[in-house]
Specification:
By secondary structure, the chain is of the alpha/beta class. The chain is built from eight helices and seven strands. The structure holds zinc ion.
Length: 207
């Protein structure tokens, strides 16, 4: 099962990806994780990424594409994958078509006001990257590794609005690009309520 997951930051896309990964036995691949992992490596691609990041520049499409392409060739992707955060542009989507045949594109939809509310209560473990909501974790301590949680700059209210604008601008053309191939799901309910229709849809697709 080769799945592309689209959705705004804070839409619950990551949580949905974890559930799909668990039940359908495919790895969740996020470009954020790929970038965090590659800067610890020593390869021509890794050095290129480090150079770009050190200079404060934006990682160009070709580099992101190369990173994803390499990742999808690994053994654990033989049965499929869930791409989370890629493609982000039509250019990336077209490149992906060339090196992998995706089965479906899931679009997680949620109103901006709810996203802003949810994201500003999000806290991240700087050690293991686990994500919590302040509502479920008032102590702000990671339940997995006991590290004090932080609010990532990305989750601060002033940057959220900007991120949502960037997302809208990039994703609108992507939605057009995928058109009929999109499976849309609302994440206004609980994570489980969001997952159920997706699960049913994927089970049918798999059969
Ligand atoms: Zn942790």
């Amino acid at each position: 099962m080769k799945i592309v997951l689209l959705g705004a930051p804070g839409s619950g896309k990551g949580t949905l990806a974890k559930k799909i990964s668990r039940d359908f036995g495919v790895p969740q691949i996020s470009t954020g994780d790929l970038f965090r992992a590659i800067v610890k490596e020593d390869s021509p691609l890794a050095n290129k990424v480090k150079e770009i990041m050190a200079s404060g520049g934006l990682v160009p499409d070709e580099v992101t594409i190369e990173l994803v392409k390499e990742r999808l060739q690994k053994e654990d992707c033989k049965r499929g994958y869930i791409l989370d955060g890629f493609p982000r542009t039509v250019n990336q989507a077209k490149a992906l078509e060339k090196f992998s045949k995706i089965d479906t594109v899931i679009l997680v939809e949620l109103a901006s006001e709810i996203i802003i509310e949810r994201l500003s209560s999000r806290r991240t473990c700087p050690n293991c990257n686990e994500i919590y909501s302040l509502e479920d974790n008032k102590e702000e301590i990671c339940k997995k590794c006991n590290t004090h949680l932080i609010q990532r700059d990305d989750d601060k209210p002033e940057t959220i609005k900007h991120r949502l604008e960037v997302y809208e601008n990039n994703t609108a053309p992507l939605i057009n690009f995928y058109g009929e191939r999109l499976f849309k799901v609302s994440s206004a309910g609980s994570p489980e309520e969001t997952y159920q229709p997706v699960k049913t849809f994927l089970e049918k697709l798999e059969a």
